[in-house]
Queue: 2 jobs
Job 1
Amino acid sequence: MIRAILIELKQKSSYRPFATAYLGGGSPAILPRSLLFELIDGISAEIPADAEFTIEVNPDQVKYELLKDLRSLGVNRLSIGAQSFIDDELKFLGRCYNAQTVEMAVNTARKAQFENISLDLIYAIPQSNSARWRENLRKAIALSPQHISAYSLCYEPGTPLYADLKKGNIRQAEEETDRQMYEITIDMLARAGFEQYEISNFAMSGFTCRHNLTYWLNEPYIGIGPAAHSCYRRVRSANVSDIRQYIEKIRHDKNACIEWSELTDEQFACETAVLNLRLSDGIDVKRFKALTGIDVSKAFGDVLKKYTSLGLIEEKQGRIALTGAAMPIADSILCDFSSFYTEPD
Amino acid sequence: MKTEHIRNFSIIAHIDHGKSTLADRMLDITHTVSERDRKEQLLDDMELERERGITIKSSAVTMRYEFEGQEYMLNLIDTPGHVDFNYEVSRALAACEGALLVVDATQGVEAQTVANTYLAVESNTELIGVVNKVDLPAAQPDVVAEEIEHIIGVRKEECFYISAKSGKGVEELLRAIVLLLPPPENLNDEPTAALVFDSHCDAYRGVICYVRVVAGSLRKGQKIRLMRSGRSYVISELGKFTPQMTPIEKMGAGEVGYVIANIRNLSDVTIGDTITDEAEPAKKPLPGYNPPMQMVFSDFYPGNNTEYDELRSAFNKLALNDASFSFAPQNSPALGFGFRCGFLGLLHMEIIQERLERENQIDVVQTAPTVSYEVKTSDGQIERIDSPSEMPDRSAIEEIREPFVKLEIITHADSIGPIMKLAEDRRCNLLKTEYLSTIRVMLEYKAPLAEIVYDFFDLIKGASRGYATMDYEFLGFEPGNLVRIDILINSQPVDALALIVHRSKAELRGRKLIKKLRQVIPRHQFEIPLQVAIGGKIIARETIRAYRKNVTAKLYGGDVTRKMKVLKKQREGKKRMKNIGQVEVPQEAFMSILDTSD
Ligand SMILES: Nc1nc2c(ncn2[C@@H]2O[C@H](COP(=O)(O)OP(=O)(O)OP(=O)(O)O)[C@@H](O)[C@H]2O)c(=O)[nH]1
Ligand SMILES: [Mg+2]
């Protein structure tokens, strides 16, 4: 499979030079060393030397030797899927390591010369409460990562968690609790010097995730490997997810894409608006026009007026952004940007 | 044809007792319809009639029938059974000398059977009793014939037992029509007088009048006058329904058919008007009809203000073919520009609504139907109010009068208790109880229309395992202790949610209404108070909580397409909503007024 991925990578790098790389989607670190290194080598060859190159790891995969090698191969950002610093929460999430493992992982990473470390945390877990969440954040902050992603637990259909919820074995956190925890997150991280730059993402100055910003800015990106998604020249596409089929297709056609759709101007503008508004900086009006060819104040005039008057959207200095009050309830607002808006009356 | 060889009759019955099916069999036996064109309920030719399996509009058809070597002309009018379309029955009866009263042998006499009998008696129509569906295992023809004798006054020995489905007994019935029903009076030598008993509008040919020639005759090229409107026309075509329109040259006294005379607008012809000869007119017009009475009113607003003109032209088109539907411009502070529409009843409203959506694809927001009221103001004026929001200020009102009806319910004896309880709750006054047989009873009430026109029928059906049937007839307006309830959403009064109710029920209704509104109005980004006010005083409040957390935590490249779909769906839900202040109110909210359940 790695062969196939490398072929796809070579093939697609001809589109346009890559600015960042992100190796994720599960746990790349479980690959046999030689293959992993071959893959990383291949990626490094396609990106500028100083480009952001992230790899996702689980805390229990972190070994000093491995990290050292990754670092020397050009990986410069580590995203650690910590989830929690509380043992029974980790257990609930199906993780087979404990809080100590997480702390050790971060320390090891630092020893291996990683200066850009991100932690993923999850809140609104059924047995959690404000005190426990504060504790989680405190521990995370104490490890001084450069970046924190904090997600409210979500129940995706098809997962065991979802099944448990439907069966009534577990109870979803109250909306109010979820809200409180979100507010605690923003508050504590701000005091620790993190800046919220996206709905769920926080970074020390200069350490926003360049790679993920691509998504929210709706700039082109290329996904490589089974089930990977791409968005290039307004065409959204996805690779086949079955590994065997993926290899087959790459071998024969040098291409594993099985579905694609070209976005209309309206669709592209709507997506851009929805994605941009997730950012604290919001929509850059000029950039929006340049990217989509559409005037944001015209296309969404009514809805902007409505939410501005409700104090949920702010327009200033050529930017349109959600206010602090809007962030926790963003979807209820963003849905009005999902197609060009005409005021119901 | 000589008038003595003509028979004009209507088929009348309660809903679903088999009128249209009986008409089918008669068309078969008389070979009016070719084998190839046969289909069930052939006369129900409107799309909605076929879909719903009910008759909405009367249809006339002319049949040739040979009896003892003599050819007869039988003009049949199939009528609808639903209470909303009662007036169609009266119109049909006025064009006939006789009527077949059909009763389902498994159901017996029901409310519309009785109501239609009254109509027949009023118009001096000769009745033949017909017990239908005798092929069904549950049929009890003798018991039903007994009921007919008891309630309708047609002797049980004289009832015909038939199966409209199989055709059994229908031939005998045709013979009876010739033998028992009187022919029209021979008034061929009198000045022309033809009754317009129905009409419809054809896009190409203009108005088509359905006529019954009472005296004199009509012919192609004749100069005619409509006696009430005073307008004159020239007949360009006249003919028979066989059942398609078949032109002929001349129509004599007693005959039924159609007239086309280059009349462009349906409103130029009043149903019940008399056509006479321009040169040699009749002395006076034939007795006409009372115009059908509109019982319920409701406002329609375009879901989107830009569709106002489209909505108007859609209504224009509908009114062209349905003179009993009316609409007038209406402006609501909450909902913008729309139309106030009048209907014969809820089924009629539903049908118009459905045609509007189907034929025009316009999103509409509709307010809950209401009855109309009379208000006597302090200066002695009497105003007709068919929207609660138009109710004048309390200080300017001397009294409010509401419409009353005579309500008849027929049910099984074992459900009398619960039905009487329901009627009592709805302020109905029992006038009479009559046993139709040992197990079936007819209850007669004086009832406020507003209490029985919406959900009452469903309730009594529920209370009687589906047995009870009801019918009502307008009596008049009477003063009542009525008040107007106002609903405030986000502190703004919403005219379209105002309602008029009896004082004794006002507070409870108001509370229920905002409880219901709390369920149907979606949450917003802010808290929304819902309040009930009577005479400017707030008497109850509910609150719709604001969204506290509603955001997708993780959104990266691969999730975008799916997420956009989810957001679109979230937005789709708001599409048919009306913006009141900053609150998006769904269509259902306006209908929650009707929900009187707990
Ligand atoms: N078994 C049986 N079914 C019948 C008979 N006559 C009518 N039906 C059925 O009864 C139902 C109603 O028949 P229709 O002829 O539409 O009744 P209708 O009186 O015209 O109904 P409305 O016009 O809606 O008032 C249909 O399903 C018919 O097939 C009959 O003699 N025997
Ligand atoms: Mg019928």
Note: Residues 175-191 of chain A form the longest helix (17 residues).
Job 2
Amino acid sequence: MPTQKTIAATGNTVVAEAMRQCAPDVMAAYPITPQTTIVEEFAAFVAKGRVHTEYITVESEHSAMSACVGASAAGARVMTATSSQGLALMWEELHIAAGMRLPIVMANANRALSAPINIHCDHGDIMGARDTGWIALFAETAQEAYDNTIMSVRIAENESVLLPVMSCLDGFITTHSIDRVQVMDDESVAGFVGEYTPANALLDLENPVTHGSFAGLGGPYFEFKKAQREAIERSRKVINDVGAEFSELSGRPFGMIETWGMEDAEVAIVVIGSTAGNVRHVARGLRDAGAKVGVVKVRCFRPFPFAEIAEALAGLKAVAVLDRAESFGAEGGPLFLEVRSALYDNAERVPVIDYIYGLGGSDVKLELIESVYKDLSDIAAGVEAPAGLVYLGSR
Amino acid sequence: MPTVAELERAMKPTWCPGCGNFGMYRALKETIEELGLSAEEFAMVWGIGCHGNGADFYNVQGFHGLHGRALPVATGIAITRPDLKVIVEMGDGDGYGIGGNHFIHSVRRNIDMTAIFHNNQIYGLTTGQASPTSDQFMKTPSTPGGVVEEPVNPVGVSVAQGATFVARGFAGDIPHLKELYKRAILHEGFSVLDIYQPCVTWNKFNTFSWFRDRVYKIEDLPDYDPTDRTKAFDLSMSTFHELTCAPDECKIPIGVFFEEPDSFTYQDGLPQLDRPMWKHAEKPRNISATMAKYGG
Ligand SMILES: Cc1ncc(C[n+]2csc(CCOP(=O)(O)OP(=O)(O)O)c2C)c(N)n1
Ligand code: SF4
Ligand SMILES: [Mg+2]
């Protein structure tokens, strides 16, 4: 069993610590608030010789992900971290990483996108990257950010998966708040992630390969995409298996979704990221007062756990989805679209209301969450659901 | 014609006390007032960084977009409104690093605008990481083992790439800076202004006094000819790689390195840029005959 010590640290500190323990061969990064300290703390580990990583400070995130892609294609275990505009600037390369099946692991400090400029938390950046082919895990707390980082390596490098993974934590709320975190000893983490043996590395003189040959008209492009779809479908099992193994090792639970109070809940809120804690806090109070409320937290957004969601929400009287991102012109935010689609095959129709909240770090007060549960209990009691989405707490 | 006071917004600058950006702010406001530019005659574009926070402090027609992308946005403004004087403010990370490709191409395009680089040799806004102009071996939070690469030489690159106005200034010498600003804004073509702007919070090495001990004025050099590109290049190289040396061993020239007064600008190359786009629309073309031909 691993030795674990409990420390007080920010999300970024423990992500850097997890990265050090996973010992990537290469890290290439560019600073951006609120990711910066992940890379700075990692750089300090390199300078002190506490990790033997080729660490390069490049001139942009486009260059950072490009260098990661090159290093990963050459057979290295590769990690990086970014946020917001940095993730947006990586967009071309995100597709390359997934399409070339390069198991890069990246932390993303979830932050709003310009314009107008803002540096605070929302999920606009990461949701904009949801169709790039990356696996996406979300942390509620610094502890989950630490755990997800370590699990990401195993998931990405699994030979039936070979896909890049983003490990997302909420900007400032999780990246910069000091939290209580259990950190494992180095040997246990090293043993858990194991050695990386690349599948199709460049620089293998016996078996030379080319990454990225033309696959146009009449070529295998379509089949490549199908193979990517199959790989991310296979990753569901791998994510659950790796999660179970990690749970056993760490003593901390993991699920693609995590539920609270759902055994007998009549209404529930579906949420992703740090707000899950606030929602549980409110739900606990309501339960104490006798209300049958529940919480469903989504910890893995890609692949989306639609079967788990459909099961968890079956038979409820009303569901609210909290979306910290927009999908302008769509019927609701990205999480809502997934959740409602997941419910389509359920026999009974459940009203699902989308609440867009907290964009650009706008405050998520407990009263707002209480108001959502109030709406849900009204709907459960027969009041008509609002038509269309609700901007929760906007001025 | 806005005065210095009218060029200020109600929001007071949030730069750290003593920051070199204050000197540049004052110099540019006074330049605009002294040139007598009317508010409609010019526009400003900023990158993202401490310098870019100027977007909140200047009361002008302005645009504040993305880190590294000020020059292409300014290019769009300049070709749509060739009547405007476009002043672009960027950081060293912003303009020479993440936006470095735009820098080179803007130089070769020679579009009429003024590019002011706030060169503090650090990423200020993101709290002190090495930038493309940080000295080699400099230790910063992102480079605790020291910067490996050689710094970009903005003056040398500009001169070599055919820039038609290249100057270097120092935020600690406001009267001199104003002279550079004036000449650059009046220059027809792309003007590069690399301004040493001490970041008092994060760059503890390239400080005001460090610069004061080293800068001298190019104007004071006997028979320096700023229209001689080869000489300009030599001057940019002779001093550049010695920035870490003792004051008596190396001196940093500030002033106009190079100027080509009657250069061929991008606007010269495209006759339709003789007036703003909206003026083209003043004479609607009669297309009835063309339409008739196709059965319209
Ligand atoms: C695409 C992108 N990557 C990273 C950032 C984060 N960022 C903001 S300002 C900055 C660097 C600032 O340095 P510099 O351009 O030299 O300006 P200064 O703050 O020193 O004036 C960085 C990395 C960003 N805004 N956008
Ligand atoms: S961090 Fe540096 S550049 Fe930014 S405002 Fe402060 S002193 Fe100026
Ligand atoms: Mg700078």
Note: Chain B is about 30% helix and 15% strand.
